[in-house]
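// run 5 | inverse folding | seed 20
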């Protein structure tokens, strides 16, 4: 048996990878995002750290510095942005304060409405997001802790239109921006996912598997036929690799043993079918489960609720979290927007 990956047609591999990237984008589930939109003047510091959630900062106009532990300050200009995929200690400071120390900062200044841009002001759109389900977390684990987006990056020029739309929204209370801003920032995040998925420095996770030419055809088959007998031996055979070589390289790429990866993939496919109105029994069979009990246990392990509950509650529900009530709109991306999650302004 050939122990190395086969040589694949470049165009076919690119098509496979791009189609899988689109599927992965559709698989990301975000929940309970809240936004702050306004501008700072004078000496200030802003941080979204310490909430246990991912967050982002978009520079609408002006300039500032991003400070994160273990990194040199990062200069951010208008139309730049940073997405913190994990709750990493960080803060922003004005352009004039590139060596800012949070221990010596002035008391937190309130954010001012956008309105007329003040001299030397920095306008920011800031938000929080949470990845719902183990599969979404697995996708997020493919990303570095933070992603810096540059306005002059040719591959991200589409984001300029989203920045313009955010700026066109009427000025309001910085802690109660237009709900449309939330949707625009959400779209921006999905552009970020696609941008990163097309890079070559993805570490581990679903995106890494999709980007590897030796694995993307296998992943495509697994997605098309999730109910097949995808034992490690059969996966290795489909990838034209020995079992030991496949196990080693696939685990390195995905960050999971092949069997665990298969479980997450099957449950995501099951969630999509249930969301579309398929019955639990037919869904279980489609992803390879003849036993309702076994399928229910597996689905609950990955998605956090039983398949029947998931199917019945796919429209609107209210849940309680440690930080307060979260209203979740169960749409295709199962994304929610709440103004009650965080009560205190940015520091």
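// decoded
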């Amino acid at each position: 048996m050939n122990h190395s990956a086969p040589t694949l047609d470049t165009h076919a591999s690119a098509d496979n990878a791009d189609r899988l990237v689109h599927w992965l984008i559709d698989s990301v589930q975000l929940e309970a995002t809240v936004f702050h939109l306004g501008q700072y003047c004078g000496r200030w510091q802003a941080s979204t750290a310490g909430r246990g959630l991912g967050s982002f900062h978009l520079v609408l106009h002006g300039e500032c510095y991003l400070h994160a532990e273990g990194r040199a300050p990062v200069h951010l200009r208008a139309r730049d942005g940073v997405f913190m995929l994990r709750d990493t200690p960080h803060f922003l400071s004005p352009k004039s304060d590139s060596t800012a120390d949070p221990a010596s900062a002035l008391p937190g200044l309130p954010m001012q409405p956008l309105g007329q841009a003040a001299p030397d002001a920095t306008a920011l759109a800031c938000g929080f997001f949470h990845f719902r389900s183990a599969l979404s977390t697995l996708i997020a684990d493919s990303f570095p802790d933070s992603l810096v987006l540059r306005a002059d990056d040719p591959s991200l020029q589409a984001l300029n239109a989203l920045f313009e739309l955010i700026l066109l929204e009427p000025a309001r209370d910085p802690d109660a921006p237009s709900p449309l801003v939330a949707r625009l920032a959400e779209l921006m995040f999905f552009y970020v996912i696609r941008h990163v998925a097309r890079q070559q420095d993805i570490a581990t996770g679903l995106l890494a598997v999709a980007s590897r030419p030796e694995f993307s055809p296998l992943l495509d088959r697994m997605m098309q036929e999730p109910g097949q007998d995808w034992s490690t031996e059969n996966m290795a055979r489909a990838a034209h690799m020995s079992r030991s070589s496949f196990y080693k390289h696939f685990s390195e790429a995905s960050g999971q043993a092949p069997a665990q990866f298969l479980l997450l993939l099957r449950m995501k496919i099951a969630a999509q079918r249930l969301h579309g109105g398929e019955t639990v029994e037919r869904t279980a069979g489609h992803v390879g489960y003849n036993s309702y009990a076994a399928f229910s246990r597996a689905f609950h392990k990955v998605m956090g609720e039983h398949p029947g509950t998931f199917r019945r509650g796919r429209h609107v529900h209210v849940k309680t979290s440690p930080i307060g009530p979260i209203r979740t709109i169960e749409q295709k991306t199962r994304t929610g927007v709440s103004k009650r999650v965080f009560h205190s302004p940015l520091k």
